[in-house]
């Protein structure tokens, strides 16, 4: 007999979850629309945030003079336009959000639609990107790059 009681609890929970989901959709994601839902529904409102402090991305030896390296996981590009001068940029293309994939011929290159960015300042060398790559501060500690993305 307890089996029937347990089996009715699951559909009721599912219906509540479904109704909360509909409320979220109807409210356009506003938190006021999900006030009566379980805490798990509101916990999804918290977006993952980027690390506030500097991020270690890799070794200085990996970035050649006149070139650069794309750190895909961190979505960061580090370049070395001249000897000992390091620059950091967002690796997210300002056209449609693809990750740039390589640095060649003094240009940071996006594979999606062909945008090219200068390794000196992230400015657009070839479109369709409408704006430069955001620049980040780069420091070197113990032979590794520390990049501040804020
Ligand atoms: S997303 Fe980079 S060129 Fe379109």
Which spans have pLDDT < 50 for at least 5 consecutive residues? 1-51
Principal-axis shape equals globular
Question: How helical, in percent, are the residues?
Answer: 10-25%
User: What is the tally of beta strands?
Assistant: 10
Order of helices and strands: HHEEEEEEEEEE
Query: CATH first level of the largest domain: which class?
Result: Mainly Beta
Main sheet summary:
6 strands, antiparallel
Q: Mind explaining what this structure looks like?
A:
The protein has helices at 2-26, 39-43, and strands at residues 55-59, 67-71, 76-82, 85-90, 102-104, 107-109, 116-118, 124-126, 135-141, 144-148. The chain has a six-stranded antiparallel beta sheet with strand order 1-10-9-4-3-2, with no helix packed on it. Strands 5-6-7-8 form a four-stranded antiparallel beta sheet, with no helix packed on it. Helix content is 20%, strand content 31%. The N and C termini lie far apart (60 Å). Residues 1-51 have low confidence and may be disordered. It contains two helices and ten strands. A hairpin with a 4-residue loop joins strand 2 (67-71) and strand 3. The relative contact order is 0.14. It is α+β, with helices and mostly antiparallel strands. FE2/S2 (inorganic) cluster binds next to loops. FE2/S2 (inorganic) cluster is lined by residues 93, 95-96, 98, 110, 112-115, 128-129.
